[in-house]
Structures are given as structure tokens and as C-alpha cells.
Amino acid sequence: LYAPLLRRHTSLVFGSHMQQQQWCARYRLPAAKSRVIYNGVDQSHFNVAAVPRTKEQLRRDYGFPADAFIAINVGQLRPEKQQTDLIRAVAVLASRRQAVHALVVGGGVEHGTIERCIAEFGVGHSARLMGATGDVRGLLKAADAFVLTSTAVETFSNAALEAMAMGLPVILSRTGGAAEMVDAGKNGFLFSPGNVDELAGHIATLAGDKGMTRAMGEAAATRVRDSFSFMNMLEEYRSLLFPRANRLMPVVEKESFPAAYRHLTGSEAD
User: Fold this and answer.
1) Residue 100: exposed, middle, or buried by beta-carbon count in 10 A (0-12, 13-18, 19+)?
2) What pLDDT score was predicted for residue 68?
3) Containing H/E element for 56?
4) Which of 15, 154, 211, 227 could form a disulfide with 150 if both were Cys (CB 3.0 to 4.6 A apart)?
5) Bridge partner residues of 2 (DSSP)
6) Residue 59 in contact with residue 142, Cβ under 8 Å?
7) Is 25 exposed, middle or buried (0-12, 13-18, 19+ CB in 10 A)?
8) Phi, psi at residue 45, to the nearest 5°?
9) Residue 245: pLDDT above 60?
10) Cα distance between residue 41 and residue 39, in whole Å
């Protein structure tokens, strides 16, 4: 079904170069008639200053330990997201006497599976299912690092971009365009999907070095500002749709798009 339809396109937009390469090869599409436009994040909405309460206050509000290292995952609870790997990584670290807490934010069919995993590994004191939320920024500000454990169906994670914009280093499985988002060792880490020991190692590295965590979080926010802003994305689509009249098109005022951004991208926990 896809192949004949896609070959008739005038212009095809992909969310990452990895996706572009895979689809052009799989469906024998002309790469010259396609381009990559990365997702963008509104940093006027996703930034730590937009959340008035301090990290310490937020942790008290949520009942999190004040001095714990907290890794957070935000996303739909679906099999391909494999949040149980984060739970398993916390268990691995607990066996090494490294205290790390995990937050899983979102709702979905895997809620029960994740609950059972927490019970099976005996990490109920350090792993929490937070459910779905309409505004994830407070939880992101309360955390220390963002973890994406997906094994498939990722192109260019909005949840990871939002976490980066909030100043969190990210630990992402090598799926979709993750390697195009993360400069490994500078604003985050990458690990092989399903490799819990590798994931645990990266979490432990950050948990053991507050200075590194802070510096990588700042680098992550800078990366979003420079490469993955909402305005950058908007300009890319505008140049695609109106290549000749682009300079004559009115500029969208910054205040006019945050609500539209959240409407277009859906729930912040998706």
C-alpha cells in the first residue's frame, strides 16, 4: 500500500535522517524528492524558569527524596516503549548499592506489566508510576535525567526534546533519530535497545557526578535552542511550502504559538 502512494509524492518529509534512509531504501523512493525536518520545542513553555517552584519544593510536593538521583521516563505505556527496562536498571543499581529512583510518567496498556515488574524486583521504594499528566514540566524539573527505553516506533522523540529543553541530560536507546539528537558524552548517552546493563551504567555515571549531570543538562538545553526550536521547525515548513514567497510571509509572533504547539504535538506524555 505504501510504496505506490509514496512514489507519487511531490515532496516527502521525514522526522530524522535515519527514517529517511530506511524508508527510501525499503520503498525505493527518490531521496532527492525528500527532506528531513526535525521536531521543534517551544522553549518559552519548556524551560525551568517557566515552573515557579524550585526543584527542592517540587520534590517535597511530590514526596520524592530530597537528595536522590531521579531518572524519569515520559511516554505512553506501550510494549514498544519498554519502560520495564528502566525498572530493571534501577534494580541492577540497587544490587550494587547505588540508590537511584525512577519515575514513569504516562498511561497505557502496560501499566499492570510495569507494576508487576516493580514488585518482582522489589524496587517499590525507588520506582514510581506517576500516571498521565497534562503538564509534565514540574516532574521534569524535579528529576535529574531523562531516559527513553523504546525498542521500536521512535522517529524523533518529542518527550526527549522537552526534557532537554528543561535542562535534563538524556539517556536514549538507539532507535529512530536518537543519535541525531544526542552528542554522546556531551548532552547525553546512547545505549543499545534492551541492554539493561548498558543503561544502568549510564545512569550510574550521571548519578555519581553532579557536575557532569549539570553540564550535560545545560548542553542539552543549548542543543534544543540552537537546533530543535519550534521556530526553526516552523521556518523549515514555511520554506518548503512557500519557497519563492518565503521572505514575504509574515513572521509568527512567539506568543501566538505555544498553545498551537501543544495542540499539534498532543499530550506532553506522548
Assistant:
1) buried
2) 95
3) helix 55-62
4) 154
5) none
6) yes
7) exposed
8) -100, -45
9) yes
10) 7
Q: What is the distance between the alpha carbons of residues 121 and 91, in angstroms, rounded to a whole number?
A: 6
Half-sphere exposure of 228 (CA within 13 A, CB side): 28
**Cα 225 to chain centroid, rounded:** 15
Phi and psi of 14, rounded to 5°? -110, 155
Residue 51 · residue 141 · CB < 8 Å:
yes
Dist CA 172 CA 231 (whole Å): 24
* pTM for this model (two decimals): 0.89
Burial of 11 (0-12, 13-18, 19+ CB in 10 A): exposed
Please give the distance of CA 56 from its chain centroid, rounded to a whole number.
Answer: 23
Give the torsion sign (CA, 88, 151, 263, 247): positive
C-alpha grid cell, residue 211: 557536575
Pairing, β 69-74 against β 127-131: unpaired
List, as one string, the DSSP characters of 115-150: HHHHHHTT-TTTEEEEE--S--HHHHHH-SEEEE--
Q: Coil, strand, or helix at residue 229? A: strand
